[in-house]
Write a structure and sequence with these properties.
two-stranded parallel sheet, globular, 22% strand, 33% helix, eight-stranded mixed β-sheet, 6 helices, 220 residues, alpha/beta
Length: 220
């Protein structure tokens, strides 16, 4: 497939680009700084683009089969952030201009405010309050896709804490919700390999199972 990838210089994005090329996809990597993506491949084109400009992005979406976003934005403790919604609004606008229908993006477990009630104490009372600005904006982006993008085939992938390690051969567990629960309703894990998140995101290109849905994932 022909893929446009945003966030390709980030830790998750680099795993995804590498796996996509290994699988034979043609990739346009849309980055803020071309010097940060050092991989070279005959099926890889790296271009600098303003990720908040639908007009700029649309030219790089023309003729593509799907858009994948691994964009991430740092948390702020004393103020809100808007990078997730701002970038997704630009992506969606560009997709409509370019007549591309499929988008896969990633957020996180616990984006819904009440979904962390059964999380471990350290996560619930230390981590979640610390990154609340990120989770809130991720949730706003998810709501935007759900309420205003019925014309697009979107999927939101929600992983737990990200470990900067390659893909494994472990079974991928999924749940339509804000985390993957065990039989008692508690989270089955706290982390996942970034490589496995990339593996799952790419697998969705050949599946209709999670169209227009958010899916929590992890490995067994």
């Amino acid at each position: 497939m022909k893929l446009s990838v945003l966030g390709a210089t980030g830790q998750s994005g680099q795993f995804l680009v590498s796996q996509a090329l290994q699988q034979g996809h043609e990739v346009i990597a849309l980055v803020r700084d071309v010097t940060k993506l050092t991989v070279q491949h005959k099926n890889l084109k790296v271009v600098e683009a303003n990720i908040f400009s639908a007009e700029q992005l649309s030219g790089h979406f023309q003729g593509q089969d799907a858009v994948i976003s691994c964009l991430g934005f740092p948390y702020k403790i004393f103020s809100a952030i808007s990078g997730y919604t701002d970038s997704m609004e630009a992506i969606v606008g560009a997709m409509r201009l370019a007549k591309v229908n499929r988008v896969i993006t990633m957020t996180s477990w616990y984006t819904s405010p009440e979904s962390g009630q059964n999380a471990p104490l350290m996560v619930r009372f230390l981590l979640l309050p610390l990154i609340r600005s990120v989770l809130t904006n991720m949730n706003q982006m998810e709501n935007y896709l759900e309420k205003e993008c019925s014309d697009l085939s979107w999927t939101v992938v929600r992983p737990p804490g990200l470990q900067n390690v390659p893909a494994t051969d472990k079974e991928i567990l999924t749940h339509e919700g804000y985390f993957v629960p065990d039989p008692n309703g508690y989270p089955v894990t706290n982390s996942v390999a970034r490589g496995d998140v990339a593996r799952f995101m790419l697998s969705l290109l050949n599946s209709n199972e999670w169209l227009k849905k958010g899916v929590a994932m992890c490995t067994n």
